Structure formats: C-alpha cells, structure tokens
C-alpha cells in the first residue's frame, strides 16, 4: 500500500467509526501535511481517492467534507412470512441467468468476480508442474477425501486463526456448491424443512427444490445477519431439520454476523440439535482488519457443516471446494464417492502447489484492496444515478451490493430492460421462494477491470427512475 | 505392429473364429515360413507370443497345438430372481473397496487400469498451455454444458462411426459417474424400479440405493449381454421406469452386445417408452476390428441417455465425462448446474488441446494392444493356477475377467484372505443386491506394468483351491 493509500484508509476508518461525521470538514491540506509530516501532494492524492470512492466531496473554496453516509440509507431487517413452504424457483433462476451468459453483456448480475483478478498464469504453471511431478499411482489415491497435502494446507489456514479443523474431516469437492449440496443431502430427508436467510442465495433455494425440501425464510439484518429470535421461533414452531446460512458476507445482502452472534447461533442450534450448513465462500474477501471466523469455530458438537472453496478468491473454474462436515463427514465422503467420485486431480495439484509457494496471501491482500475500493466507487455511482428513495447496503466484504428500489419498481421488468441493453442484473425475485424483494436488485462490483460498469450503472439508474415515474423506456408514459 | 505381431494376430483370429480348433496342430515353422514368405525367426516369435498368451502350447518333438479354449469354460447366462427390490449394498461396497486403497496392495480388485498406461506427461503440457492461452472471460462461459470445442470434438469422434450426436446435446460432467447419476435422477422418482444387468456394476446399485430406487436384476449372458426376453418380461411385469445398462464390455462380465441386438434392445425400450441410461466408458477399449456402436446409435426417440468419459482410456483423475441425454438433455444440464456447476476448466482445456493435436488414436491403438495381450496372459494364469471347475469369461474389450469359482467357495472370504496378503480382488457380492455371485470374483488385468500381478494371481488361485478343499489358509483343515 502506498503512503497516500494508507492515509486514505485511516480517514475512511474514522468515517466508518463515526469519528468523522457526515457534513464535517476534513483538515485542510496544509494542516494535514504539517501535522502528519507528509507532503501536500500525498494529502491531495488521499483526498482525491476518498472523493473517487464517494466518501468525501469538495466544496468550492471551502475544502473537503464528509459525504452523507449511504449506510444511513441502508435497507432494514427483512420481514419474510416465516412459514414453511415448498420451493419452486428454479425455472425463474434459469430463465434469468440464461440470458446473462453472453460475454458481451456487462456482468453486473453475475455471481462471479472478474477472472482477471485471479493469478491465472501462475496457477497454470502449477498445473503443469504438479501433474508432471505426480506419481501415476497417486491419481487413484486422491479419490475422496481428496489430495492429502491440499487438505493439510486448508487446515493450516484455519489454524492461523486458532481454529482446529482436522485435515481428516475435510473432504475436497467440485467447488463449494457440491459441498453444500452433499451436506444438505446428508442432513435431510425429502419433505423436511430447512431454515434459510431472507433474502437468500438462489442456489440454496434450488438445492431445496431439487431435494423436495421446504424452506422457512428467516428475517435477516443487512448488517449483522439472521435474526436469532426469529430463528428460535422457527426452530420451535416449524420442525426445522437443518439451517443453510452464510454468516460471512452473505449473498446477496453482504451482511457480516459478529463473532459473538455466531457463537450464540451455534449454541442455539446445538440446543435444538439442528445441523448448520455454513456457506463460507466469501470469508477471505474481508475489508476489515482480519478474517471473520466461521460459525464452525464455535462448534463443539460436530453439528456445523462448514463449506468453502477457492473459486471466488483464487481459482475460478478450477472447481475445488471443501466440506468440513463434523459428525456428517463419513456420510458426505461416501456420497461424494458415489456421485462424482473426486474433484479433478490437476486442479487439486495446482492449488496445492500454489498454496505451498506462498503467493496466496499477497494475492488476497491486493484483491481485498481492489474490491474495497470498487465497493466505494459502485456505492457512489448508485447514490448518484439511482432514483430518490433507493437504499443500499454497505458490505464489509465480498462483491455484492443489495439495492432496495422504491417499492413500486418491478426488478424483473428492470432486469428485462437492462438485458435488452446488454446489461445483466440479478432481480430480487431470485432470492426468495416467497415472492418477496420484487423491488430489489443485487449488483456485482467485482469487475473493476470492466470499463463499462460505470456507464451500465448509470443506465440501470435511469431505467429504474423511468420505471418509478411511470415513464416507459422509450420515453412515453405507460398506461 | 511388428511383422511377428501381425502374424500372431492373424492366427489368434483364426483360433477365435474356430478356423483353427482346440487340439489342432499349427503349421510347422518351416512350412509357415515358406508359405508366408517370412523368416523362420519371425514365425518363432509369433508362436512364442501366442504361447505366452495361452492360445497355443508346444508338445515336445511334435510342434505347436491350439490350446483348449478357455471360452468353453465360460460362465453361463446368469439366473437372477428378477424381482423388484430395494437396494442395500453401499456399506458392503465401501467396506470392501476401503481396504484396497493402500498403494502397496496389488490392485487386482481395482476398477481402474494402470495410470502408467496414460500419456500423463503430454496431458500435463496441454494443461498448462490450455490455461495460459485461455481468455479469462471464457472461464465463466464454460459452465454447463461445457467447453464448446471439446463438445464438438466428442461429437466428431462419434461422427467417424456415422453416428450423429449434436454437440448441443452433449453435457460435460465430472466423469461418467456424474453423468450416469444425473441421468438416473432425471429419469426416475424415489420408489421407481430400474432394470439392470445381473451381475451389474456396483456403482449402479449404489446410485439406485442413494435415490431410493428399486432394482430388478435381469439375466445376462457373459458374451452378448442382457437377455432381451427376460428384459421384456420385466418391462411387462415390474413397472420398470428406466434401464441402466452397459452394452459394450460390461463391468464386470466384459460382455459385448452385438449391434443388431442393441437395435432390438432400443426398439423394445422405445415400445415401452422406457429410457435407457447407457454406460459406455469401455467402448474405446475394443480388441476387435472396430469400435462397437453404442445403443445410442439406434435411438430415434431421444430415450437413450448415453454416458461416457476419458477416465478409463486416456486421462484418469481429470474427471471429464459427458452425457448425451436425448430428450432429457435440458433437465440433466440444469441438474448439473445446480449440483456441481461445471467440470474443471483446466481438465477440459487440456483434453481439448490433446484431442486437437491428434495423438489420441495412436495412444488408443497401443493401449488396446497392451490390454488384449494382457487379457491372454491373465487368462492363461487363471487356467494354470485356479482350482478345477473354475469358469472364466473371455472379454473382447475392457480390462476385467469375471471368474466363477466352484460353487461352495465364498468370494468374500477369499477377498479377506487375499487382502491380508496385500492383494485386492472384487468379490461377486458387490455386483448384485440379491446376494448372488458369492462364488465369483472380478479380476482387473489392466495393470500390465505391475510385476506383482502374476504372483498375486497364483496366490489367489492357491487360496481359492484351499478354500475349495476345506483347507484353511494356514494349511489346517477348517471345521
């Protein structure tokens, strides 16, 4: 990090913590320069950076001021119906996602960050090297639970945060999605009810639908996650057999459950003997001082089935994830063996080689910095372009903004209009089986290399404004 | 192929076709040399080769004679109970297979051929090259149905045999196992009955068990596959919802269904509107003059869900297979997207690069020659070492022998005794949910590079002989 970036980060933190409040004036450039013993140019660069991120703004002949905080316009805790119901959402998900596969589309609706953020060339070297060095006999040995060295490396990364996960508990899978699906299969029988956040990641809803499970959607706060009181009510009333949650940087809300709340969550579920399927794929993409712990860290009964992967933070397309499935480990391993046998050996070899070589943490630091800056840019653009009354989350990690548009705007119509302009967005309809969030959209800010994003957000904001004011896309009033 | 190998192959074919019969004398070396215009040394080398394969034998001062054909001691058509029943075999399969993972074990019970037979170094080159050359944006494009170039290449290989499979119908999967499981899910609901061969590959039984399906095991001939009359009876009586069959080189029998019989099979199933899940992973490992057609070649209604992979014939551990699922294609593609998203991109890139470069057919020709020779060696060893009354198949492709031991020998006990001597075998118990085949074993002859195989077959034969005569492994009579 350069000196001006460090100084900008300090100010951003003061704004974050409320030390500097909206409307307050920042120190003058001369004052800051003298006091901090840095050059005026450095102060200017820091202020420009903060301005670009929308955190401060200049007033003519007066200096820099802290901007109105977007967080004050964040969405409220969701209020789902909290009844257990069958899920039928898959067709809609496929319809909407199918239209965004064209590579000419601006990928704001995508679930993936830009692959250009990954060290693809370095990984490619490890692919070839790892497979050349491999004893042919090992190819069969790496059947589930997976490459032993890789499982030790994964366990070692948890150990840095003083989490003890036994490598023997870790099962390597085809990405986190397979891990989550296997865990869900292991913990439920058709007809069971599963508690999920509201809104929740559509893949969770699809998994429930595929396995003929019912969903009960639980109220969730956009900053600190699922409402434990609401969850407890559901546990008492709805005969919940499992939970599928994302305590860290939830998709789509971006919410981050504080560690003590995670501890309460795990205790609550332990009391009811209900397993937790924990989707933790964004944990490494934190913008705060350290990696948030997974709920698994507080698990004493082996009820937490922790799932993660390298797909979002390192190696898209390599399809390597894992499950640490506690008391369900043996069952998950067997199911893996029966359905897809093992994750690809070249992918496992390459990742193991890469992790060994030690570039991963450096890569992650850079990735977090890029995503944090891009979050600020995207929030500024939403504040600037989107209609009055829009609310937006301010996630502390990951790469999604959750945007609540004025109530009468239909996100599915917005998605269609955006698609006709070669822009994808993810309408709120995808994130609930209950027909909620019809005025919400999820925006992906994980493509900072895509020069078209700014213009696309402007277009979406304009389309939303027109929909809100009853103006049809061609400018004529709708009936 | 060298000249003596060519000559040996000609004689082997004459023996195969009955032109030369067991007990008949071969032409003298001088006679053959004059007639064929090849050197006596070449004739000798051909005869030595045939002798090593157990097809002919020398009698002192008399010349070479065609050996008693092992095929005359082949097992008969199986006679399963043909009733529809729930499946509970998975635990046994895991118990038995779990004990064979140690790499110090002689892998005669393995389901895989030796990885040393694969062009691993060449594939490793294509891994790195393919991923370096890849446009990062493509990484997301290769979600299901999979890498487009690879799907075209797969379709092109079918086109050589004048089979038209539309690349758009092909879905790339994590090996054939995932393809088969997805197809089975698409074609059935829990409680349905599925017809399988008897004996059948244990992975099929496990898949049925996992999805709460019932199996009806159909009589199957060790040479030409499932008995169509028996299948028709089951179709009429058992409310069969799908079939899972291996027309080409069935595992474990090695049976090869003649093409006209495949046509009748497909017509029969079409009449009953029953989909066929076709496991075709061994088709490229034929020893005859050309690749046998899949049942899919005769499909007019889109009822054949054809599954195959590169795992057995080219790239073990790369986990790349495919399904051409006919009218179920869209459903299979969606299920793939929901459960494991996609096959690993590096593996797909590497295979596509390798197929393009044109080394595949050369590799396959060599592999077939090696396996065919090894089949003969293994059959000779079984004939030599195994107890009187043993019957064995003579497969025309693949790498499994199915051995029927005298009736009172328990293959599970034999497996345990072999395991204690660091030798794995696959006991017949694994290949039926009905408790049949308790005196049968499947032997893998796909490890010609493993010098321990001969000695291990001798040990197994000895153990079987002792079990048959009531001698306990330590030489004392059992109670």
From TrEMBL, chains A, B:
Domain of life where this protein originates: Bacteria
Report the residue ranges that make up the HTH gntR-type domain in this protein. Answer: 1-69
Identify the CDD domains for this entry.
AAT_like, WHTH_GntR
A molecular function (GO) held by this record is: pyridoxal phosphate binding
**Swiss-Prot/TrEMBL keywords:** Aminotransferase, DNA-binding, Pyridoxal phosphate, Transcription, Transcription regulation, Transferase
What's a Pfam family this protein contains?
Aminotran_1_2
Q: Which family does it belong to?
A: In the C-terminal section; belongs to the class-I pyridoxal-phosphate-dependent aminotransferase family.
Q: What is the protein named?
A: DNA-binding transcriptional MocR family regulator
The organism of origin for this protein: Povalibacter uvarum
Q: What is the lineage of its organism?
A: Bacteria, Pseudomonadati, Pseudomonadota, Gammaproteobacteria, Steroidobacterales
């Amino acid at each position: 990090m350069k000196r001006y970036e460090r100084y900008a980060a300090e100010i951003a933190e003061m704004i974050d913590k409320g030390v500097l409040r909206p409307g307050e004036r920042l120190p003058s450039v001369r004052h800051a320069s003298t006091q901090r013993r840095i050059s005026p140019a450095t102060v200017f660069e820091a202020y420009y950076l903060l301005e670009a991120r929308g955190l401060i703004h200049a007033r003519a002949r007066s200096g820099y001021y802290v901007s109105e905080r977007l967080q004050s316009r964040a969405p409220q805790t969701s209020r789902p119906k909290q009844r257990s119901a069958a899920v039928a959402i898959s067709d809609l998900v496929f319809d909407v996602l199918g239209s965004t596969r064209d590579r000419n589309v601006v990928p704001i609706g995508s679930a993936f960050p830009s692959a250009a953020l990954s060290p693809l060339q370095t990984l490619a070297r490890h692919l070839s090297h790892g497979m050349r060095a491999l004893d042919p006999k090992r190819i069969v040995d790496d059947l589930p639970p997976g490459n032993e060295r890789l499982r030790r490396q994964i366990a070692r990364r948890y150990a840095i945060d003083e989490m003890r996960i036994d490598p023997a508990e870790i099962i390597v899978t085809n990405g986190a999605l397979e891990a989550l699906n296997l865990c869900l299969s292991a913990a439920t029988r058709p007809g069971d009810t599963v508690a999920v956040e509201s809104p929740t990641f559509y893949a969770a809803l699809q998994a429930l639908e595929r396995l003929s499970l019912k969903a009960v959607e639980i109220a969730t706060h956009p900053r600190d996650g699922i409402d434990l009181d609401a969850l407890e009510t559901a546990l008492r009333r709805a005969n919940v057999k499992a939970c599928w949650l994302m305590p860290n940087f939830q998709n789509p809300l971006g919410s981050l459950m504080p560690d003590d709340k995670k501890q309460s969550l795990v205790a609550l579920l332990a009391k009811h003997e209900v397993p937790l399927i924990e989707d933790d794929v964004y944990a490494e993409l934190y913008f705060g001082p350290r990696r948030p712990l997974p709920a698994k860290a507080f698990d004493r009964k082996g009820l937490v089935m922790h799932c993660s992967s390298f797909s979002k933070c390192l190696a898209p397309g390599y399809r390597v994830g894992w499950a640490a499935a506690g008391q369900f480990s043996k069952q998950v391993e067997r199911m893996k063996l029966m359905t897809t046998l093992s994750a690809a050996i070249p992918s496992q070899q390459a990742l193991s080689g890469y992790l060994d070589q030690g570039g991963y943490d450096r890569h992650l630091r850079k990735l977090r910095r890029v995503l944090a800056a891009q979050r600020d840019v995207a929030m500024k653009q939403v504040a600037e372009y989107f209609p009055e009354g829009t609310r937006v989350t301010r996630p502390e990690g990951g790469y999604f903004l959750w945007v609540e548009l004025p109530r009468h705007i239909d996100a599915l119509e917005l998605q269609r209009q955006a698609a006709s302009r070669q822009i994808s967005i993810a309408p709120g309809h995808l994130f609930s089986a209950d027909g909620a969030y019809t005025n919400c959209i999820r925006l992906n800010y994980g493509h900072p290399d895509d020069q078209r994003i700014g213009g696309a957000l402007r277009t979406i904001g304009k389309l939303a404004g027109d929909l809100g004011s009853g103006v049809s896309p061609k400018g004529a009033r709708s009936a």
